[in-house]
Structure formats: structure tokens, C-alpha cells
Amino acid sequence: MAKKMGIQLNEDPQQGTVMDLKINPVYDAFGKITSGLVVGDTLQQNKALILIMQPGELKSNPDLGVGIEDALLNEDYLEYRHRIREHFAKDGLTVSRLDLYKDKPIIIHANYEN
């Protein structure tokens, strides 16, 4: 459960750069910032980060990262379905549904193991 909670990343381009830290400053009566980083459920952003990262981009876990943009140049979707399951498992995610087929929307249902 601990992996599902953490610092949020911005997902709304209207509120700043997407994938930057989500910041919502709270001020005290004197105008000083008392808090700012938004903490919450990170399951969806963790799945997105694992999909878009290339192996080696995350210094704390250099083996983690699917590099899904490479699938655009590759017709071997079976390889990427295996890669997604493998890399999600490295982070403790169990995939219950994975649809990755040519000319179809990508659907991934995964959750952290209990």
C-alpha cells in the first residue's frame, strides 16, 4: 500500500508543465508557505512513468522502464506485452488485463500486490 501513496505529479497542462511536481502552496497568517507538495494516490502516475521511461533513466532502479515509444517503430506487440508485465512486476504491480494490439487503444489494469 505504501507504493500507492507519494508526491503527485502534475497531470493538467492548464496548471503547469505536465509531469512536474504538483505544488499547491498553503500560507499561514504571515504569508509564509507552510506546505506545498501534493501527496496522494500515485498508482496511475507510477504506471505511466514505468511505461514511458527507458531502462537506465531511473537512477534508483536502472533496470526499470518499458520505453513504450519504441513500440511505435516496432510491430512486435507481443514483446512489449511481455516487457510491460515484467517491468510492472519489478515495481510490485500485478497486471490483471493488458491489451496492446495494432490500431487498438492500450488498456492496462494493474495494482500493487497486497
Describe the structure.
- The protein is α+β, with helices and mostly antiparallel strands and 114 residues long.
- The chain has 2 domains: 1-41, no CATH class; 42-114, no CATH class.
- The chain is 21% helix and 25% strand.
- It has helices spanning 43-52, 77-90; strands spanning 5-7, 23-27, 33-37, 39-41, 93-99, 107-112.
- The strands form 3 sheets. The protein has a two-stranded antiparallel ribbon.
- It is elongated.
- The N and C termini lie close together (7 Å).
- The model has no long low-confidence stretch (mean pLDDT 90).
Brief descriptors of the model:
two-stranded antiparallel sheet; alpha+beta; 21% helix; elongated; 25% strand; 2 domains; 114 residues
Q: What is the helix content?
A: 10-25%
**Low-pLDDT runs:** none
Rounded mean pLDDT score: 90
Structural category = alpha+beta
Strand numbers in spatial order across the main sheet: 1-4
Total of DSSP H or I helical runs spanning 4+ residues: 2
What would the principal axes of the Cα set say about the shape?
elongated
How are helices and strands ordered from N to C?
EEEEHHEE
- Kindly provide the radius of gyration, computed on alpha-carbon positions and rounded to a whole number of angstroms: 17 Å
Strand content: 25-35%
C-alpha end-to-end distance: 7 Å
Q: Profile the largest sheet.
A: 2 strands, antiparallel
The count of strands amounts to 6
State the domain count: 2
